[in-house]
Automatic annotation (TrEMBL):
Similarity section: Belongs to the 4-toluene sulfonate uptake permease (TSUP) (TC 2.A.102) family.
Keyword Transmembrane assigned: yes
Cleaved signal peptide residues: none
Main subcellular location of this protein, as a coarse class: membrane
Region spans: Disordered: 114-134
Subcellular location, record wording: Cell membrane
Gene Ontology terms: cellular component: plasma membrane
Top-level taxonomic group: Bacteria
Name the UniProt record assigns to this protein: Probable membrane transporter protein
Lipid bilayer topology: Multi-pass membrane protein
Record keywords, A-Z: Cell membrane, Membrane, Transmembrane, Transmembrane helix, Transport
Taxonomic source organism: Actinomyces johnsonii F0542
PANTHER family: MEMBRANE TRANSPORTER PROTEIN YDHB-RELATED, TRANSMEMBRANE PROTEIN YFCA
Amino acid sequence: MVVAALCGIAKTALPGAATIAVALCTAVLPAKESTGAILLMLMTGDLLAVWSYRHDADFRMLRRLVPAVLAGVGAGALFLHLASDSSTRRLIGIVLLLLVAITLLQRRAAGRSRVPTRSPVPPMAPPASGASGAPEALEASAAPATGGRAARLVYGSLAGFTTMVANAGGPVTSMYFLACRYPVKAFLGTTAWFFFLVNLVKLPFSVSAGLVNATTLSLTGIAAPAVIASALAGRRLAERMDQRVFEPIIIALTIVSALPLLR
C-alpha cells in the first residue's frame, strides 16, 4: 500500500515519489516484474492527474518532445531484452544523479548571470499560480533555460528510456521542467499529460515483454483505491505549495530516489 500511495501522490503533487516507489517495489519483486506492476499503478493515477490539470499543461512543449521520447522508449524496450536487473537499476541511478548535478550547475550559472542593473524599471514579478495555464506564460518561462532542440533530444530520449526500463522517467522530466521554470501547476500539468501519453505508448511494449500479466493486473486491482486516495490528497497539497518550497523538494526527491538504484 505504501508503494501505491507513493504512485498516487507522484501523479498530482511530487513526481519524484514514483521512483521511490520503484525502489521499494524492486526490493520485494524482481526489477522487471516490479516494472509491470508499477506501470499499471501509475496509469491508474494518470487518469486522475490529467483530469486535475487538464488546463495547465504546455502542449507545445509536449509535441516537441515526442520524437526524442519515442526513440528512448524504443531503446528501452530493446535494453529490457538484453540487460540484467542489476545493470538496469545502476544505469538509471547514475543517469539520475548526473542530471541532478547538471541541473544544479545550470541553475547556479543562471543565477550568477542575472546581474542587477541601474534601470529604474522594477523586476518582473513571478507569474501568478492562477495564470500558469496560459500559453504565453508557459512559453516565456520555458524559453531561456531549456537549451533548445539539443536539450529536448537529450532529456526526451532519457525520459523515454528510463520510463520504459524501470518507470523512472519522472526525475528526468522533473529536472527538465525545473529548468523550464514552470510554475507549480504548469509543472504538474505538463508532467501529468507527458506520462499519461508515454505510458499509453509503453503499454504494448510492456505486454510483449511480459511485464504486464495476470499477476500484475491483480496487484493493481488491490492497490487502485490507495493510488486514487493518495492522488486526491496530492492534488490538495499542490494547491497549497509555494514555488520556493516545491523546487527544492523535487530536487531532493530525485536524489533520494536515485540512491537505492545504485545498489
